[in-house]
Design goal:
Elements lengths: L1 H20 L4 E3 L6 H10 L9 E4 L2 E4 L11 E3 L9 H48 L10 E4 L9 H16 L3 E4 L11 H14 L23 H13 L9 E4 L3 H14 L15 H9 L5 E4 L6 E6 L3 E6 H4 L3 E4 L7 H11 L4 E5 L5 H11 L6 E5 L2 E2 L15 H7 L3 H9 L14 H7 L10 E2 L2 H13 L3 H14 L9 H10 L9 H9 L3 H7 L1 H7 L3 H13 L11 H16 L4 H12 L7 H14 L6 H13 L1
Parallel strand pairs: 5-6, 12-13, 14-15
Antiparallel strand pairs: 1-4, 2-3, 7-8, 8-11, 9-10
Helix pairs in contact: 1-3, 10-11, 13-15, 16-17, 17-24, 19-20, 21-25, 22-24
Enzyme class: ligase
Subcellular location: Mitochondrion
GO molecular function, one term: zinc ion binding
């Protein structure tokens, strides 16, 4: 575009000079050879009628034939020949036209160069676009070091399990490290039994830690806070010896007892001087007074000196920007008690730093703890981890989830027959979704889909019925052998199976899979299958009694005869279920029954009840139980009852 403007400008300047230099000359143009014709020549290299093309030679532009020059499209008329009045005017005209041509030539060369480079540029752009299209929508995250840090004062509950799960997922998702740290500084309430219980629950969920108690890494770093006392003492002394921006030590000894603290608070509240935070009289005490106390061997707590006007800010992944006025919110706080025991927030900050924790995902009730921890980390010249504070989990009545809402500990869920994959599926969705309608996930799908930035701020409601439904879906998605492995312990505890590898487990799994939501739900089905009381059904079940009037005895007699004749399949064989399906069809043809008129009375005759799981599976279960010595009513005994009933 610049090139064309330059050429047109040069030509116009030349024309103006000509008009001034030759006043008596008249330029006459036909309508089709106006200024537009000139522009057409400049752009297309020919006049509309001539059809001549521009050619380039050594960077100069020429017109072929009659299109040798644009001014040639005009005819001149006048009394004197075409001439300039002065040599100077002629030189100016030539110089102007020449300058325009040179500028145009230079710009045209630049344009040609860009055009030659364009294919390469376009190729680069296309390749870049292709790479962007092929790339995953989410950037690959660097390896995260996350931690789950429970206090071993009770069982692992739903909230703690979700916190552990979120941290475990992000470590696995990024190829990072999941750390288990036991925060047992509350010596009065912490027990090793609770710790072992929590570890067992984490193992049941499949949330195995990479570093923690009893791992090889423990040789390098202890993971129980009760065993890290020297570390905390060293860090506290470091803060006492380090000078802050105000020229005073970051931490200082406070000789006020708890009684002194309480008395000072009471006194300042009475006078209206209490500002909501405790101001230690030892914050600005003279050094000689402090030294005298130290020399006397008096016990003291170590307090953190909160800087005047200090604000602490974080960009929480879940809650967004959060900040605090430190001085107004907390005042100087204790790092080490006078007994030498470190306080919770000091331990957490030091441990997160020394263990290299990059991301802290925890419950929102810990949000205010971030203020103290942030001050400590900054004072020790450690970087703050990225925080994410997740919302509370509420019961269906809107109150905080507790025992009155039903099972809340992981151990209870395991005892009731929930499976780990379903628990993970449900727990991850308490406050998170991937933006789709999908509700059932495998563990790997959870890892792939989860991201902390989609965790919601609002509280989530624990729905037991939804958890049961999800658990049922996971049971149905298992193959029989996988379900049998989970089901067998329940059957053994109920006295319905002798060993974990008994075929009873797999047959029961196949028989119950579509009918249960919990593993424990299978127990009544297995019990009913092994029991047999047809007389009770005929007496108490109206629908069963009705069959007596539909020649039930005749069908029962025919079944007994088939059994005695050896036509009835052998339930002790592994393929009995399939053979029974084929036999009942042939049996129906033989006695002239089909559909409901065949299947309902046959079920009643062989199982003693009007409804339940597959009849073939139940009879196969009976045969295995008989072989394993599990109490049951054998098929032979059932036939004897039917024979007696038919004879009445």
């Amino acid at each position: 575009f610049i090139f064309y403007v330059a050429v047109a400008t040069a030509a116009l300047c030349g024309a103006l000079i000509l008009l001034q230099a030759i006043p008596e000359t008249k330029l006459i143009a036909t309508p089709t050879q106006s200024v537009n014709s000139i522009r057409h020549v400049a752009i297309h290299g020919s006049t509309p009628r001539q059809g001549k093309v521009l050619s380039r030679s050594n960077g100069a532009m020429h017109l072929e034939g009659q299109a040798a020059q644009v001014s040639g499209q005009f005819s001149a008329s006048g009394t004197r020949p075409f001439m300039f009045e002065t040599t100077f005017q002629a030189a100016c005209c030539c110089a102007t036209v020449f300058a325009g041509v040179v500028v145009g030539w230079f710009l045209e060369r630049q344009r040609d160069t860009r055009q030659l480079q364009a294919p390469e540029s376009i190729a680069i752009m296309v390749a870049t676009s292709a790479r962007k299209a092929d790339a995953p929508q989410t950037q690959k995250l660097p390896p995260m070091r996350t931690r789950f840090a429970p206090s071993p004062t009770g069982s692992l509950h739903v909230g703690g399990a979700r916190t552990a799960l979120y941290n475990w997922i992000m470590a696995r998702k990024t190829g990072g490290t999941f750390i288990l740290r036991i925060e047992d500084t509350d010596m009065a309430r912490s027990t090793r039994e609770s710790e072992e219980s929590m570890k067992a629950d984490l193992k049941w969920l499949g949330l195995m830690w990479d570093e923690g108690p009893e791992t090889v890494k423990e040789a390098e770093m202890r993971f129980r806070q009760s065993e890290r006392g020297p570390v905390y003492a060293e860090m506290a002394q470091k803060l006492m010896s380090k000078v802050g921006p105000d020229g005073k030590s970051i931490a200082y000894p406070c000789f006020s007892s708890q009684e002194d603290v309480d008395a000072l608070k009471t006194a300042t509240e009475a006078t209206g001087e209490f500002q909501g935070t405790f101001v230690s009289p030892w914050r600005d005490a003279p050094q000689d007074v402090v030294q005298a106390k130290l020399d006397a061997g008096e016990t003291y707590a170590i307090r953190f000196r909160v800087p005047k006007g200090k604000r602490v800010a974080i960009n929480d992944t879940v809650r967004g920007p959060v900040s605090w006025d430190a001085e107004a919110t907390i005042g100087d706080f204790v790092l080490l008690r006078s007994s030498g025991v470190p306080v919770y927030n000091f331990c957490v900050a030091v441990d997160d730093a020394l263990m290299g924790i990059t991301h802290v995902i925890r419950a929102e009730e810990h949000l205010t703890n971030t203020l103290r921890q942030g001050l400590i980390l900054e004072a020790l010249d450690f970087a703050m981890p990225q925080y994410a504070h997740c919302s509370l989990i509420l019961g269906e009545d809107g109150s905080k989830l507790s025992k009155r809402h039903g099972a809340t500990s992981v151990a209870q869920f395991a005892e009731e027959g929930f499976v780990p994959s379903a628990m993970i599926n449900y727990l991850v969705g308490l406050g998170w979704n991937d933006g789709t309608d999908k509700e059932v996930y495998t563990v790997q799908e959870v890892i792939d889909a989860f991201s902390v930035d989609r965790v919601q701020k609002s509280p989530s409601v624990f729905d037991m019925q939804k958890l049961k439904w999800i658990n049922g879906q996971h049971l149905r998605n298992m193959d029989d052998s996988q379900l049998a492995a989970l089901l067998s312990p329940f059957l053994i505890n109920a006295g319905l199976c002798k060993t974990a590898d008994s075929p009873i487990g797999e047959v029961a799994a196949h028989m119950c899979k579509q009918k249960i939501e919990l593993l424990a739900d299978a127990i009544p089905f297995v019990k009913d299958a092994l029991a047999y009381d047809i007389n009770a059904a005929l007496t108490n079940d109206a629908s069963a009694a009705k069959l007596i009037n539909e020649d039930f005895k005749g069908l029962a007699k025919a079944i007994v005869e088939a059994y005695e004749a050896g036509e009835f399949p052998d339930a002790a064989q592994a393929d009995f279920t399939e053979k029974y399906g084929a036999w009942i069809k042939e049996f129906g043809k033989k006695i002239g029954r089909k559909g409901k008129q065949l299947m309902q009375p046959a079920r009643l005759a062989l199982t003693g009840v009007m409804s339940g799981p597959d009849v073939g599976a139940q009879l196969r279960l009976v045969a295995i139980a008989q072989q394993d010595g599990v109490p049951c009513v054998s098929i032979a005994d059932r036939m004897a009852v039917l024979k007696a009933l038919a004879a009445v």
